[in-house]
Amino acid sequence: MKIKFTLTLLFCWQVLYCAAQIGSFTAKKSLGNDMIAREAASMVSLNNKLYILGGYNTSGGPKDLTEYNPATGELKKLKNLGTGPSNPLREKTMFLVKGKLYNFSGYGTGVSIYDPGQDIWSVAHAQLVPGLIPDAGFVINDTIFITSQSSNNFYSYNIVSNTFTKRAALPGPTSRRGAVAFEINGKGYWGTGTNGGTDSCPQAGCFFNDFYEYDAVANLWTAKAPLPTGFKYGSGASVNGKGYAGLGEGYYDNYMPRNMQYWYEYNPTTNAWTKKQNLMNVSDATLASPYHIKQAAVASLGGDLYLFGGNRSALSTVYTDDLYKYNPASNTWTVVDSDLGKNRTSAVGFYSNGKIYAGGGNDSEPLRDFWQYDLSTDTWSPKSGFSSTYSERAAVEINGKGYTVGGYDATMPAGSTYNNYTDSLLEYNIAANQWTVKSPYPGGKRRSMVAVAYNGKLYAGAGVNANGHGNNKDFYEFNPASNAWKKLADFPTDFNLANEIKSFVVGDTAYLFNEIYSNWMVYKYAFATNTWTQKDIPDGMSIHQAFTFKGKGYAVYYTAFTYGIYGNLAEFSPATNTFKDILTFPFETVGQLVVPTDNSIYFGFGQYNFTQTGASRSNVWMELKFDADVSKQTGTYTSKSQNTDNTCGPFLGANVFQSLYDQEGKLFASLNTGNSSSTRSLCMEVNSLDPLQPYRTAVGKFGQLYNEKVMFFNRSLLIDGGVQGGGGRIFTTAAELTRFVQAFNTAHGTNKTLNDIRIISYFEHLKNDHDPLNNINSSEYYDVLTPTVHTYGADRYLEFFNTANESARGEIYITLSIDATPPAPTVTSQVILCQNHTATALTATGTSLKWYTSATSGTGSSTAPVPNTNTVGTTSYWVTQTKDNTESARAKIDVTVNPLPGALTGSNTWPSTMPHNVATTFAVNAQVGATSYTWTVPTGFVINAGQGTTSIQVTGSSPGASGEISVRAGNACGQGPALSKMITVGKATPTVTFNNVTRTYSPGAFTLAATSNSTGAITYTLVEELTTTYPGNITLSGTGNATVQVVKSGKVKVKATVAEDGAYVAGSKEMELTITKAAGTVTLSNLEQAYNGQPKPVSVTTNPAGLQATVKYDGSATVPSAVGTYAVTASILDDNYTGEGSGTLVIKNLTAAPDEVMLQSISLFPNPTTGRAMLDVKNGLVVQVSITDLAGRMVMSQTLVKGKMEVNLEGKAPGVYLVKVHSESRGTLTFKLYKQ
């Protein structure tokens, strides 16, 4: 499907590195039928429906065709008139003939036909007859009769023969325009209008009232009764056998032109005109009223006449989209729809609690309606309308109520009973659906005022007053609670006739902006201090709208690229007084209503300047959201603007983003126009396939010098307009991108990731088949871009950049690829041939082989080469294989032509005799061209290693054996002459091994044995004593196994000699024989001795007995005598034994008698005792106390007693107990304690 959708242009002066949010627009349900007000439309009826075409308003001639059903009120937009003759006239020149609509276009451009059954226009006649500028006409049977406004020529057009025929000239002056015409009973009727040429025409006579009948059979005009009043641009039609005409522009008193409301009926039977009810049944009036209309379209339907559109004023252009019905039977007019399209500009609105309230404005005529838009249901419902027709009001919402202030009504002429400007303040109660007039603005009547809400109050001022001046400095605060205004500080300067002062509130400050394109400033109002400040802002922006959204200030402005067409949206930074561009609107924004809500911003209505319909008023209703979701839609989505004359949308500057969305505002892609300073436009089209469909694959050169196997994502992006030096983003869901990578890996057995994705672009877009193989520029010219994959919420986007010399123009695909080059064929890389032998063709394993004689150049041959063997040396060949039209790399084959090997050298290094059972090396010098070496040895010799090489190891197993060792060099061509030498195997050197070389001392003898691989006898010799302190400690005797007589420990060097036998020569080996000391034991006794003042040595006993030992007391050889405790060590001192013992010597003073001090210091009482006694120790003595019975059993003991000690014998048997008190310095005192 082809779906026309909206664009968003994102400005970012640093290309893709800006932090601006991406906004998306979604078309919401419009208010009404999108039918703009106009004059001079054409209207016919068919199948109980009205068809309205074209007309004229301030923006030119619309090309739209609309179907209206009076029974249902449904209005349907049909195919625009865009083929062949594309411009309808301002006159009513569309006719219904046999179910089809015929439109005569102006200035000789031809006839177009509309088929309602197929909703298509076609060209019937490419060009009218020269000089025919259609003005009015009628239909008789299958022929259309048309008058010309530039002459009195009259023509008929036959739809069957598609031919024009000139008829009898029109009566009256030589040219006439603005006439009315209709058909009654097969006759044509025509009249009224004004002079269309150069004939003299007095002012009073320039509006004709003459009337004529035309007989098509006789080709004759006949004058009929004139109308009561002359006029031009009136309306006329026939119904029920009678003609009706009227309205238009005529003269009143003083010959001033005025639109008319008169309506007349013509009776062809009586040839008489009768005045009928004026439009909307009003009485005659000479001053302008809403029902004085010219250039209205009229058509008959169901016995009634329908009147649409027109111009309400002869002095001030006021177009209308009203639809009226006239009933001839009752002679009454009724309103079918007072605002058929609901299109408007300068509307007013505000947001409250999930709903938008909007209305008013004008559609060339003032509108009083008011509506509620429900965001959750996307529906409109009517509310209580305004009581007056003022537009350009300012509005705010405060605490659930809406307030509008000021306004302007362009339809009220100056000097009339109404004033164009108003100072009214209206309050709208949402709950009650009621408007209430509040205290008027005290600064005077004006329009386009500034109005903001802050802390429950309204702040208003500026605007344009009744004198047309915009330099109003006053500023007021309105308190809804008291219905009172308060004067505030004036603006710091005049606004220099700036008609559009726009504002928003950020924090506690209001920001006001002058719309003047140059000398642009921001005015800051601090609510808290009631003060103003101002600051210059750079030229180049003209503020159109300003608003606050989520605490930030935004402005809709124009630049040199967009002025009067598409506005830009910018975010304001209060810190720097600068704006940051966010986006450019995909629709025209002049006179739009902007309503911020909680989560999005709504833009509606406004005025077109350049559109596909030429309409001047809009009913567009768009929602702007930031950070759009990623689109999952399939089909073809095209980014075309509303202007068919510029299919690539609005002109853009450098570094501008343009984004592509589906009809729900969800994102496909965004591109940047690049850094070119030239003005450019940019169109995009996305072709989105079902992501579950198989992916397109191809093999070819897609931007590389070699073939690739490429898989294409199921979505392409077509670009019409360069993005050289810019870049863009392509948005996908995470699941789509992951599935694409998995499909590629499954197909090719690879492990690609998202980071391996490439983007290619190519010039296919003119073919429009979305086939990346149809590159119309060159089969090998593709731009390759390497994107980076970024997370976008739960989804992804691929961001790519272009250098200044690259372009993404054309069609863009997301791809994955691998090198399609097949592997080189399988070959035998080394081929050996013999000189002058017959060779065969080389072979390789592969498909479609090509043979080369160079690694990089030359032309391949499909015939395998046959090597030349005449010359010795190496020749290289290369071979490739081809698959999928892709040739592999070249595999190399080296062909070597060898001669027979020559004689070998090197035997001069060979030994004549080799030892028995010892590996011996034999080697020769390498021979050029030899690939192997064959060695032979005689019986009794064994080749251990190296056979086939230039060096071998040989072992002779039989001593005395001899024979010739020889070698030949060989290759594939054969073997060369032998090189040989006689070799004899000699006796080997024996090995000798000892045992028992380390012994512990033990008196007596032991056997020392040596072993050998020789069978010769072994003898032993004492070489030298190594321990010189004990000479002569070992005696050797015996042959084979020696007897060693040990005298004492020590170390000697001993030599074992083996005699020669049949296989080994004599040999010997020396070794060290070590006799280590044996372990002895030491026992200490007499470790506790009584003090007597004499030395107290301990007793030492050794094992073996009688060994000498050294004794030390606390490390000293001196024997102690004093009372005390001493650490004692005793070490054996002997040649053959070693050992040590230790203990503690205690010398006690146990028998000393107590001295006098002790006798006086110790007492025991009571004695005898029944159980307890007290031992009293005086004079600071410290004693040791022990208590035993007479059997020596310890009863109690205590050391370090000082002072008193209780002796407790309770529970003990009666008898005598010994209490011994000992002092180291005072002796020992013993008491006998008697227990009763």
Automatic annotation (TrEMBL):
Domain Secretion system C-terminal sorting, residue spans: 1164-1226
Entry coiled-coil feature ranges: none
Listed Pfam families: Ig_7, Kelch_KLHDC2_KLHL20_DRC7, MBG_3, PKD_6, Por_Secre_tail
Keyword match Signal: yes
Signal peptide boundaries: 1-20
InterPro entries, sorted: Ig_7, Kelch-typ_b-propeller, Kelch_1, MBG_3, PKD_6, Secre_tail
NCBIfam families reported in the protein's UniProt record: Por_Secre_tail
Protein's UniProt name: T9SS type A sorting domain-containing protein
